[in-house]
UniProtKB/TrEMBL annotation:
GO terms for biological process: base-excision repair; mismatch repair. It comes from the Bacteria. PANTHER family: ADENINE DNA GLYCOSYLASE (PTHR42944:SF1). It is an enzyme of class 3 (hydrolase). Binds 1 [4Fe-4S] cluster. This is Adenine DNA glycosylase. Gene3D superfamilies: Helix-hairpin-Helix base-excision DNA repair enzymes (C-terminal), Hypothetical protein, domain 2, Nucleoside Triphosphate Pyrophosphohydrolase. Its cofactor is [4Fe-4S] cluster. GO terms for molecular function: 4 iron, 4 sulfur cluster binding; 8-oxo-7,8-dihydroguanine DNA N-glycosylase activity; adenine/guanine mispair binding; metal ion binding; oxidized purine DNA binding; purine-specific mismatch base pair DNA N-glycosylase activity. Residues 1-152 form the HhH-GPD domain. It comes from Anaeroglobus geminatus F0357. Belongs to the Nth/MutY family. The keyword DNA damage applies. Pfam families: EndIII_4Fe-2S (PF10576), HHH (PF00633), HhH-GPD (PF00730), NUDIX_4 (PF14815).
DNA sequence: GATGCGTGGGG
DNA sequence: TCCCCAAGCAT
């Protein structure tokens, strides 16, 4: 859960998770959709699938005990160099490094590394430095201290150098680069897309759609959507077409407040998706479903849609 | 090596 | 309001 995610964001999910799946056996036996549902809203949903797969592997291959050896941990889905090192050192006190974003930042400043910390080259260099410093038999507390140090003191912006016990040894501080380092050079920025969401009601059911098992928000359920920032996926044109059919449909953009307003009216019954007419005759399938309102809570919902189910 | 993959909080 | 970015991994 903590991979690329803040502790504050994880905490409530972790607490809830441990109540639902208190043991590896319980998680291994759980239904995949239920696992995804408990992860709903946390992001990076492949982590949930990987964790489920790995825990099943731990039960079937390792008798329910998570391996201590890094080489074995690395064979599990969703466990890479950092997580393998963290489990091996923190849980079993093996002499392994655990270089995460915090440790990269700390070493970049401490050693004045003026290179992109997102590169494999710097990651390798920092791992070597950490390996040299690693106190034999104390890797667990050492790694945790490094990580906590980065999370609490040597923070990304405005590091707390005044309280730092290492301020007299820090290359970045000595050269006045403590706010410039570490260097993070990313690629091109992510383009924005706009979608219209359709709320389509038929008696006491609502039309929903399951996303593909790979890619963005994989396997999550959502309300039907159409691009509304390009000519061939125009939400306004869609509304016009549908009203010409004598149908009552709502087409709104993905703004939570607007969708709450849409839900409050409860009078829609049909929709169009990707230019194809979808009617009450639409057969239920793995992908499309007319879902009774009371069953919403049982499914994993994509992004903002998950927060709307309470409105139904 | 570069890119896709979420979400929410803080400056 | 906008931008940055947070205990990475898979492809």
């Amino acid at each position: 859960m903590l991979q690329q995610t803040r502790v504050e964001a994880v905490r409530p999910y972790y607490e809830n998770w441990m109540e639902h799946f208190p043991t590896v056996e319980a998680l291994a036996a759980a239904d995949g959709d239920e696992v995804l549902r408990q992860w709903q809203g946390l992001g990076y949903y492949s982590r949930a699938r990987n964790l489920h797969d790995s825990v099943k592997e731990v039960v079937s291959r390792y008798g329910g005990r998570i391996p201590a050896e890094k080489s074995e941990l690395l064979t599990l889905k969703g466990i890479g160099d950092y997580t393998a090192g963290a489990i091996s050192s923190l849980a079993y006190n093996k002499d392994e490094t655990a270089v995460d974003g915090n440790v990269l930042r700390v070493f970049a400043r401490l050693y004045g590394i003026r290179e992109n910390i997102l590169s494999a080259k710097v990651k390798k260099k920092v791992t070597e430095l950490a390996r040299e410093q690693l106190p034999e038999g104390k890797a667990g507390v050492f790694n945790e201290a490094l990580i906590e140090f980065g999370a609490l003191l040597c923070i990304p912006k405005s590091p707390k150098c005044g309280e730092c016990p290492l301020r007299h040894f820090c290359e970045a501080k000595a050269t006045g680069l403590e706010k410039e380092l570490p260097l993070r050079i990313t690629g091109k920025d992510t383009p924005t897309e706009r979608y219209a969401v359709l709320i389509c009601r038929k008696s006491h059911t609502v039309l929903i759609h399951r996303r593909p098992s790979e890619g963005l928000l994989a396997s999550m359920w959502e309300f039907p959507m159409v691009r509304c920032d390009q000519p061939h996926g125009d939400g306004a044109g869609l509304r016009h077409y549908l009203s010409g059919q004598g149908l009552v449909v709502s087409v709104e953009e993905t703004v939570t407040a607007e969708l709450k307003h849409v839900f409050s009216h409860k009078k829609w019954d049909l929709a169009v998706y990707e230019g194809r007419y979808v009617s009450g005759e639409l057969a239920e399938s793995e992908v499309w479903r007319w879902l009774p309102v009371e069953k919403y809570a049982a499914l994993p919902w994509a992004g903002p849609h998950g927060k709307l189910t309470a409105c139904l």
